[in-house]
Amino acid sequence: MSASLPPLTALRAFDAAARHMSFAKAAEELHVTPAALSFQIKSLEEHLGRPLFRRLNRAVELTEAGRALAPGAAEGFAALQSAWQAARRQGDDTTLTVTAGPALTAKWLAPRLYEFAREHPEIDLRFSATLRNMDLERDDVDVAIRFGDGPDEGLYSLPVRKEWQTPVMTPELAAQYPTPDSLRDAPLIHDDSITFLQPPCDWPAWFRAVGIEFVPEHGARFSNADHAIDAALAGVGVVLGRRSMILKDITEGRLVAPFKTAIETKGRYRFLCLPGAEKRPQIAAFRDWFVAEIEKTAHVSDEFEIIPVEKVTAP
């Protein structure tokens, strides 16, 4: 049994076969014939001096040695893939991959991206609209925009303005519910996408901000903020809308915010990337554009009395 490492191609064949528990599927993944893959694994077993698989009639299973090798092989190839992608990105100043939540992408980013594309035609911008936790070292992503209050340990993190919420509705509904107190009888829409924030930034908190003790017992509930806003646009009811999600619809008159009291959440959007990556030209350009776009609408906050949610927390 040799103490030296075996050929990388043989280890790769083993890794694929161990993941699929099938020589045929592993061969398909690696674009080789099953015979070629079987030869690679056999050479690996000869190098080790013991079998890695038990060959059954229509399946394979790992031996004790195979079970010992499989986790390390998988981690090793994942680390190699991550390092390779990181090395490629270091030399690429024209491609930028950004991940943001579906709601922010639909309601804020997408309507504005033509401005960034016009200002930076040299950058090939790619988007992944997801809330999945991304590993910026392993995943092929340069920038993540996330909402909340962190923590963002080990990352470059640039927080932007805190979000606030205020009731918004169609102009027709606004005529039916002209006062905060009248909202007790209105069909209220609940945005459950930020229920993770503490203290809660919800309808009871807003009602307390205007001096009303009221806990709604009914109303449509949505797990995505953009779906809650779309329901309000359709006239379903009144939603406690976040600043970033409602500004465009308010500016264009589809929604109105008749009550000038808002509650400020403890969460905010953060621009995240690996430490040092913020200096790469395309990331710096997107960061500066992102911050500038937010500041363009900062004056809208002057129209509201914005009350931190901590001040209206239920006793």
TrEMBL record:
GO terms for biological process: DNA-templated transcription. Gene3D superfamilies: Periplasmic binding protein-like II (3.40.190.10), Winged helix-like DNA-binding domain superfamily/Winged helix DNA-binding domain (1.10.10.10). Pfam families: HTH_1 (PF00126), LysR_substrate (PF03466). SUPFAM superfamilies: Periplasmic binding protein-like II, Winged helix' DNA-binding domain. Residues 6-63 form the HTH lysR-type domain. The keyword Transcription regulation applies. Keywords: DNA-binding, Transcription, Transcription regulation. One of its GO terms (molecular function) is sequence-specific DNA binding. Transmembrane segments: none annotated. Belongs to the LysR transcriptional regulatory family. This is Transcriptional regulator. It comes from Ruegeria profundi.
